Amino acid sequence: MSTSITSQPGQPVDQATLTDIPRLVTEFFAGKPDPAEPAQRVAFGTSGHRGSSLDLAFNEAHIVAIAQAICLYRAKAGISGPLFLGKDTHALSTPALVTALEVLAANDVQVMLDTLDRDTPTPAISYAILVHNRSKPAALADGIVLTPSHNPPRDGGFKYNPPHGGPAGSDVTDWIEQTANTLLEQNLQGVRRIPHARALAASTTHRHDYVSAYVADLANIIDMQAIAAAGINIGIDPLGGASVHYWPAIADYYKLNAAVTNTSIDPTFRFMTADWDGQTRMDCSSPYAMAKLIELRTRFDIAFANDPDADRHGIVCPSSGLMKPNHYLAAAIGYLFANRPNWPDGLAVGKTAVSSSLIDRVAAQLQCKLIEVPVGFKWFVDGLHNGTLGFGGEESAGASFLRTDGTVWTTDKDGLILCLLAAEMTARTGRDPGELYTTQTEKLGAPVYERIDAAATSAQKRRLKSLTAADIAATTLAGDPITAKLTHAPGNNAAIGGIKVITDHGWFAARPSGTEEVYKLYAESFRDAAHLEAIQVEAQQTIAELFESA
Q1: What is the largest distance, in Å, between two alpha-carbon atoms of the chain?
Q2: How do residues 297-320 score in pLDDT, each as one tens digit?
Q3: Active site residues
Q4: Which of 513, 514, 507 has the alpha carbon at shortest distance from 535?
Q5: Which among 149, 296, 399, 422 has the fewest CB atoms less than 10 Å away?
């Protein structure tokens, strides 16, 4: 793979920068990670273990160790039902699935593979887990998805969803991570594994039609009849991901007027346009990665896309182009709570601490309780599962919500239903979600929001993560009195891993990246762009002073 990045943002990726897939897969099997090197150990972040075989961060040994650790965890936790196993279209996902199956089968785990070996979205795995566990609570199921989400083609990823169907909490991932690293340190002694042919033929390996089950149930969460009856013209770009198998099935089953604009599956993702930094990244919330669909927006009444494992959504409207994730979340919440008559009273709205405060104002207007949590979809799992949270969403274009009867659909992010909701909104109101958002802001204010990634050393990131409210000496921010300094999310009192400073007209939040030598600065103003810039400047000055004192 070329190390130089010459692609221009929003333009077709430079073919010279494409990932060398044969080398990538060869290194998956040939590379031998050294557990004494921190970057080569198993490390579960907010979305599982991720890395590249080229960096000795995602190799066969990692998958063997993690899969065996999950088998040990299942035995420890008494999980005896099937394990739903799926993958996305990244090049490393297939060898990782093959390797995982060899370990799972050797440990006599009942594994559910797709009937036709199709790629499987994360929400389809979550959905399958919950449907099974609702009918067979005596033998609970769980699941694994091999995906690095929207990451570049060189990356691989491993996510584990326990019986609640959502992302595993840190209590689970910490145990799996520690156990897997111990296995790596012991040169995989104690791992059980059988050849792939035997694993496929094992009596514990079964086939499951993920597509048909998921598609047929969509009418119980989305008004599919209204979409079909309106005949709206829908454009869809799976961005080369797992949803490419689902969208034609959905359109056919519900007789939708929909066109999939790109049906290609290619592990180099050579059909993409380059992201902001020239990288190939299947980020459906990026206007650069979404340039092709944005160009087509006037052809459709509504258009949308998903990332490779379809847990994120990107909504393209004729009125506004690609919607910012915060804008769509606000519009979706306002629409859902006004158009789900069978939802029970008292449902709450969930948002992450770095999502737009417009969501707070929408919730207040709806007279709904707002639950603000740290970054990570895992914080919404319990509320969605027990039906007390009507909607949970995060600023990175991930969300899920309840069925029309107020019961759980998925406890992981579901980009498919968020896309279909945009079609329902357009079909039933005659206005696209961008127009509905504009109407909201006329009453509640139009915020200006931006995230900046800034350099930070490991020591500085540790300093940022350990801040207390007392460390922020300032009493004003961009000319306004500071009303709150938060290090814990008000919705559940969990640490946000940084600081959030709030005024009546804006806020900023700073938290360290878990994977890069940067910190993330989020800021929002309900005045204008100049006020936002003032917030950012003061926030960066504050953080710089704290770093100097570290």
Answers
A1: 68
A2: 999 999 999 999 999 999 999 999
A3: 149
A4: 507
A5: 296
